[in-house]
Amino acid sequence: MVRALLYAALMAVIALPFVTLIHLASVAAPDGAVGTLSHYVATVLPGYVRTTFALAAVAVSLAVAIGAACAWQIERYQFPGRDTLAWALMLPLAMPAYVAAYVMADFTQFSGPLQSALRLAFGWSKGDYWFPEATSFPGAVVCFAFTLYPYVYLLARSAFAERGHELQDAARSLGMGRSRAWWSAVLPAARPAIAAGGLLALMEVLADYGAVSYLGVDTLSVGIFRAWYNMSDITSAAQLALALLMVVIVVVYAERHLRSRARYASTRARFAPRVPLSGAPGLARTLLCTLPLLLGFALPAVLLVRLHLQLDGTAPWRETLGWMGNSIQVGLCVAMVTLTLAVVLQTRQRLWGERAAAWMSRVLGLGYAVPGAVLALGILIPLGALDSRLIDAIRSFGGLSPGLLLTGSIVALVYAISVRFYGVAGSATASAYSRIPVSLDECARALGLSRSAILARVHWPLARRALLAATLLVFIDTLKELPATLALRPFDFNTLATATYTFARDERLADAALPSLLIVLASLPAVILLTRRTRDT
Question: Which of 137, 179, 202, 481 is 20 to 30 A distant from 164 in Cα terms?
């Protein structure tokens, strides 16, 4: 009975944001909201939808092409710089897309260093030449593609390492050319992994607000914030949030349905040596794999340092350290909540055989596909109402005024981000437990160990590294999360992400450089851990 009540309470916590959105969109419409929504439908909503679909399709397709191409070159060939590029290609994961958007727009604008250098070198003036505009749809495509391709690269590389060599050799022995063998034999076997990486990149594109708002690309995420903040129309914002949520659900369902129908062997028969390349073929592959690293990490990082050095006077280290402290506080809380919940659910499923725990973990894992703006909108209203009730109750009993306990603290923020990133901790925990043989549990029970003792003395020592890596990954994802943090942060509570966004919005890019650099530097340990989990280079 107690377990059933706990699971019911957990389910209520998960469902609260979505029930609130439905309620706001249908029942709680204020006067004039229907007219506002009709205005949206007649004017900007079709553009929001078209732009969202187009941006997702083009940016993710480019990210998939880059990630899969680099993964195959790294796994199949040995060329100059390959050993360094094998792990360095993961570094763009440490660069948030909105940070890359800020610095690339500043670098390529008319008064920026790139165009200024071109005018100085060739004697051009305004109107003498054409230069692509960074604050545009193509600029957003480039920022997303070159910062999100590592999701595809990581999974595709593992897939190619399993059977890629053998499949290509088998296809070549049947008379196929190198290109045809890759398209006909290697790519289909790696398609599930590539699709999974592309889905992760797609979720990031749909959830983004910082990059698209700065680059002037009107997506559904931007529309939600405009209706919510600029027009104070919570009903239309909820309806737009539901529209975005429906898009995400359809995409996730379609990807899982297509992948569930595919069956591929994934056992690795032997280690295949890489094909050594030198001269022009080797140099071509070195350049191919260097370009994504250059555009996705090296150039933005250098530009951040350049912007920081342009600051007049001393950098605001005191304020920045305060923002870092806030970011660390939220990150640690989210990491602790998600990892604890993941371990509890996985343990209840494995040692107690509770199907409800497995089902609950899968439902919670879907939160990763929900944009932060959607969660923020669905959480803020009910917690605000609960805050009012708590304040009235405390006043009636003690005459005290405690202030906002939930929305006035980091509770709401931790709640939303925990739902958003539980999937990271949950999938890592499930993977770690799957590598622990069930026979060890049986032996421990035969020796008289209790379930709690098995968890402490068997599971934890074997899964410790994977769980610590998952904790760090959740921490870093929280550090970079912008939409939910922007909407749910308490008054006068800034994190590195919100400070970066605020400075960039006010065109104070030099001030935004320092918190951006700290986000990147704090993300590097997680990237290094990810590279250690791939095939040894």
Answer: 202
Domain with CATH 1.10.3720.10 in the chain: 1-25+313-537, 32-309
**pLDDT more than 70, % of the chain:** 90
With a cut of 50, say whether residue 158 has pLDDT above it: yes
CA 178/CA 70 separation, integer angstroms = 17
Three-point CA angle 412, 413, 417, nearest 5°: 120
CA distance 182 to 262: 18
Could you say which architecture CATH assigns to the domain 32-309?
A: Orthogonal Bundle (1.10)
> 187-236, pLDDT tens digit by residue?
887 888 888 889 889 988 988 999 999 999 999 999 888 888 877 778 88
DSSP 403-471: --SSTTSSHHHHHHHHHHHHHHHHHHHHHHHHTS-HHHHHHHHHTT--HHHHIIIIIHHHHHHHHHHHH
Say what the alpha-carbon torsion angle 17, 23, 25, 29 is, to the nearest 10 degrees. Answer: -130
- Could you tell me if 234 and 383 are in contact, meaning their C-beta atoms sit under 8 angstroms apart? no
- Angle made by CA atoms 441, 445, 449, in degrees to the nearest 5: 110
Rounded Cα distance between 367 and 377, Å, is: 14
Q: How confident is the model at residue 366 (pLDDT cuts 50, 70, 90)?
A: confident
- For the segment 404-424, the average pLDDT, to the nearest whole number, is 90
**In this predicted structure, what is the pLDDT of residue 272?**
63
Query: Of 34, 41, 371, 386, which is closest to residue 235 (Cα–Cα)?
Result: 34
Bridge partners, residue 276, by sequence? 78
Q: Let me know if 31 is exposed, middle or buried by CB neighbors in 10 A (0-12, 13-18, 19+).
A: exposed
The count of residues in the chain is: 537
Q: Is residue 368 within 8 Å of 203, Cβ to Cβ? A: yes
Beta-carbon contacts of 254 under 8 Å, excluding residues fewer than 6 positions away, are: none
DSSP structure class, residue 136:
S
For the chain, the farthest-separated pair of C-alpha atoms sits apart, in whole angstroms, at 86
Q: Domain 1-25+313-537: give its CATH code.
A: 1.10.3720.10
77-78/275-276 β-pairing: parallel
Note the helical H segments in 226-316: 234-260, 279-293, 299-309
State the SS3 of 97-127: HHHHHHHHHHHHCCCCHHHHHHHHHHCCCCC
- Contact present, 407 and 453 (Cβ < 8 Å): no
Report the candidate in 62, 201, 46, 49 with the shortest Cα–Cα distance to residue 138: 62
